[in-house]
């Protein structure tokens, strides 16, 4: 694809967007997996959220 | 109004939010992917701009990044208002989740603007009112993230960050009107009173890319909010674990 004399600037702009957005998606996906893994490990050790133990709907983060 | 209030109250429950966002997230992500693919095709097959030539293609990522940099900050400020005034349980989660995403889009706005500026203006950077005010917005985002991470007490950090976010909202009108202050930057050509001044052959790719990037922003924000709720649950579970261990340690031996 011929993008004329400013091709390097155009590819660099789209490249930076691709790299930053891919990094953002990867960070969020990996962070989500990590947090879920920590919850699974804690629950496997028998730790339960207070709301789960009481059987009440969860109104907070615990 | 009552329906809106009921929806807000319903979403105030993190468990319900996790259920709803879990259902919505794949659809919003797919929408973003499809729109961005179509938008990129339209961007690279769009006709040449008569003044800028191919370099106008940078606008298809620069302009949506700029809009989302400002919209992201408006979201942080609105969430902060929700925390300080209504004490909505998810308001701080939303503000915390939106800050790094908004910072990333502001960074993209600055970098793509520089990469357009060099061939068009002859310089990567000029201390122009628009460029400088967007740079201040980027530092404001970094300040919000740094302030929150520097305070150990999460409730205090949330309140102080919310106050700073509300003070910083003054930057949005400054950025919007900065093009009228002896600026090199062109004035608004899409979001303006009257019709857009861009030819439809260039306007449509821009709008498709803008909607696609907005959908991506929404998906990233939902995912970041879900991660933050999980992080707070991990903290709550660890507190329960410590309490249980303390209770057992307190029991008499034998």
Report what the structure shows:
The complex is a heterodimer of chains A (62) and B (254). By secondary structure, chain A is an all-alpha fold. Chain A has a domain at 16-44. Helices cover 69% and strands 0% of the residues of chain A. Chain A is built from 2 helices and no strands. Chain A has helices spanning 7-44, 50-54. The longest helix of chain A is centred in the middle third of the chain and has 38 residues, at 7-44. The termini of chain A are far apart. Chain B is an all-alpha fold and 254 residues long. Chain B has a domain at 55-183. In chain B, 77% of the residues lie in helices and 0% in strands. Chain B has helices at residues 2-11, 14-45, 59-86, 91-121, 129-150, 154-168, 171-177, 200-250. In chain B, helix 5 packs antiparallel against helix 7. The N and C termini of chain B lie far apart (62 Å). The chains are: A mainly alpha (62), B mainly alpha (254). The A-B interface holds A 1, 3-7, 9-10, 12-14, 16-17, 20-21, 24-25, 28-29, 31-32, 35-36, 38-39, 42-43, 45, 47-50, 57-62 and B 13-15, 44, 53-55, 57-58, 61-62, 65, 89, 100-101, 104, 107-108, 111-112, 115-116, 118-119, 216, 220, 223-224, 226-227, 229-241, 244.
């Amino acid at each position: 694809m011929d993008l004329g004399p400013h091709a390097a600037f155009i590819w660099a702009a789209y490249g930076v967007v691709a790299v930053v957005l891919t990094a953002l998606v990867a960070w969020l996906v990996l962070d989500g997996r990590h947090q879920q893994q920590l919850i699974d490990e804690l629950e496997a050790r028998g730790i339960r959220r207070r709301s789960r133990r009481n059987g009440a709907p969860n109104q907070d983060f615990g | 109004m009552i329906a809106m209030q009921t929806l807000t109250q319903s979403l105030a429950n993190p468990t319900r939010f996790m259920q709803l966002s879990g259902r919505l997230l794949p659809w919003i992500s797919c929408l973003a992917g499809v729109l961005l693919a179509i938008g990129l095709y339209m961007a690279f097959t769009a006709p040449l701009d008569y003044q800028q030539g191919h370099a106008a293609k940078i606008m298809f990522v620069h302009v949506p990044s700029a809009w989302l940099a400002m919209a992201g900050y408006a979201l942080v400020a609105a969430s902060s208002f929700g925390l300080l005034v209504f004490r909505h349980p998810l308001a701080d989660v939303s503000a915390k989740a939106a800050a790094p995403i908004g910072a990333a889009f502001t960074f993209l706005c600055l970098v793509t603007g520089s990469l357009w500026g060099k061939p068009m203006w002859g310089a990567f950077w000029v201390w122009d009112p628009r460029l400088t005010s967007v740079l201040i917005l980027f530092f404001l985002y970094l300040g919000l993230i740094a302030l929150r991470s520097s305070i150990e007490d999460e409730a205090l950090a949330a309140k102080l960050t919310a106050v700073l976010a509300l003070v910083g909202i003054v930057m949005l009108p400054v950025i919007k009107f900065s093009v009228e202050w002896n600026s090199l930057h062109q004035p608004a050509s899409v979001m303006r009173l009257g019709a857009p001044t861009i030819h439809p052959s260039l306007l449509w790719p821009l709008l498709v890319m803008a909607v696609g990037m907005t959908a991506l922003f929404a998906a990233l924000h939902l995912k970041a909010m879900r991660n933050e709720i999980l992080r707070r649950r991990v903290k709550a579970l660890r507190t329960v674990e410590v309490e249980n261990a303390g209770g057992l340690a307190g029991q008499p031996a034998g």
